[in-house]
Amino acid sequence: MSENNIDQEALRARFNPDGSQLRRQQMRMLEILLEVDRICRKHNIKYWLSSGTLIGAVRHKGFIPWDDDLDIEMLLPDYKRLMQVLPEELPENMALQTQDTDPNYFFFYAKVRDRRSLLEENTGYDRAWKEKGIYIDIFPFYKQPLWIHLLSEKTFGHVYKIMRTTTGTNGLKRVRMLTWFNRRIIFPVLMMLCKVCKARETYGLGIPYHDERHLEDILPLTETEFEGHMMPVPKDCHKALTLKYGDYMKLPDMSKVNLHVSKLEFF
User: What whole-number distance in Å separates Cα of residue 59 and Cα of residue 233?
Assistant: First the structure.
């Protein structure tokens, strides 16, 4: 047992032993992360591991054994800069996925996709997207009053319902229309309000998560081990994770572990 009374070897053997589909997916996500890390360091763009990826780094020194996604965050100015340099810097086997690069992609955060795999998620949101490979998520992070963020979830949330309940081109047209209307009209107004209202930091507008984070827990960044590599993490991982998850060192009920992926192929 480790110092945290977690049998890491037993968890690896159960969920992601070497050669398993999940472990291969995790290693492909790690490849993407290392490439994004290289680009961020080259251009002095700050980012940090977040959410379950950060729990994995602290609790397991790598992926949570059953985790099939990878999340990083950055402040909005860094996010905008990264969106500019990634298309020029990524290797040919990876692609940036945003509303600008993929016409039916409607999320208000970016993905970097692997082009040597095909992944289908349980939600079906990705059925009309151009890029469908293994990915990592990149979230923008800035100050927003909670009421403004909740309003952005309301004005954009109908898109998710359309994608869950409709098929065919009519549904996609409605999704594109609502995405454009929020991005070009509603969200710019809300962003102006964010700048004049007292607020804590949270996810970007339109992103369906609104847990509060504190910038003083995050900056200046430090590093910790993740899958054998030193990666940037918040200054106080304990405070940041406790604020979001409570007792993050406690393992969940293993019978309730669910994966995002319904289909995965490697090329």
Answer: 13
- pTM to 2 decimals? 0.95
pLDDT of residue 166: 87
Per-residue pLDDT tens for 80-95?
A: 999 999 999 999 999 9
Helix axis angle for 146-165 and 187-196, nearest 10°, is: 160
Alpha-carbon distance of 155 to 135, in angstroms, equals 27
Q: How many CB atoms lie within 10 A of CB 216?
A: 12
| pLDDT surpassing 90 at residue 182 | yes
pLDDT in tens, 208-259: 999 989 999 999 999 999 999 999 999 999 999 999 999 999 999 888 887 7
Q: Which amino acid is at 83?
A: M
d(CA 110, CA 140): 9
